[in-house]
Amino acid sequence: MVARTEHIQKDKSHKARDRTADLHTRGEVAPMKIPGIRYCEINLNGSSYESSLLKRLRYTSLAKIIALMAVGRRSEAITILGKEVIQPRGLVGQAIDTIDSSGGELKQIFDILADAESYPLFFHCTSGKDRTGLLAFLILLVLDIPLDVISVDYMASEGELVSERGLRIQELKAMGLSDDFAHCPPNWVMDVYGHIEQTHGSVQAYLDWIRVDEVVRRKVRSNILTQTKIQS
Fold first, then answer.
1. Are 134 and 141 contacting, i.e. CB atoms less than 8 angstroms apart?
2. I want to staple 5 with a disulfide (CB 3.0 to 4.6 A). Which of 32, 56, 78, 98 is the partner?
3. CB under 8 Å, gap of 24 or more: what pairs does 197-203 form?
4. What is the pTM of this model?
5. What contacts 41, CB < 8 A, 6 or more positions away?
6. CB hemisphere CA count around 49 (13 angstroms)
7. Angle 89-204-188 (CA atoms, 0-180°, nearest 5)?
């Protein structure tokens, strides 16, 4: 629900910029796929994540969202969820909720990363900094990269997204979210890492919990480091 609405908001923005775009009957921009490339569409904000958000709602708000979804007023439903749950949680809370509820989806991704036939690969999300940033964060931890280096890497997105920020802020407001969600919190890496340590004891224990065991992690390290050597 959340991810799909985010895609719809993004599509509306593209439509505003390009009135000649070919659209699906549901009003979304047709995704372009290049022949010969394998696409793996994994939604980190899937049903488990959405359930974790809905559980935080007041019963009256939950009833209102269900009623709005039933009559096709998705954007209004998401605005309620955004204002009452996602906004108070912030970007750090959003990442923590994903870590806690989307283990199955993260395992799917790491299984792909552990497959040598998957390389070279490219991963992304709608904005390129939140879910993408979370996955990059976990991959770098698997590679034993120091936290301060990971933080610098995460914060690099702050400058790279300047050209899209105005448009992104408009999309966020339509979802009931503030401008803060268009930025990269400096404390993000340390706070998310702290949650993993506090909840599971270590990153390794968390990855074991989502069934990304040491065998898988070893394959991921080998694949990424081997590919890096080949490209250099």
1. no
2. 78
3. 199/100, 203/138, 203/141, 203/142
4. 0.84
5. none
6. 23
7. 30
Length of the chain: 232
| Cβ-based burial of 95 (10 A; exposed 0-12, middle 13-18, buried ≥19) | buried
Q: Token pair of 45, please?
A: 């904000």
Residues 6+ apart with CB under 8 A from 36: none
Q: Which two tokens stand for residue 40?
A: 């793996």
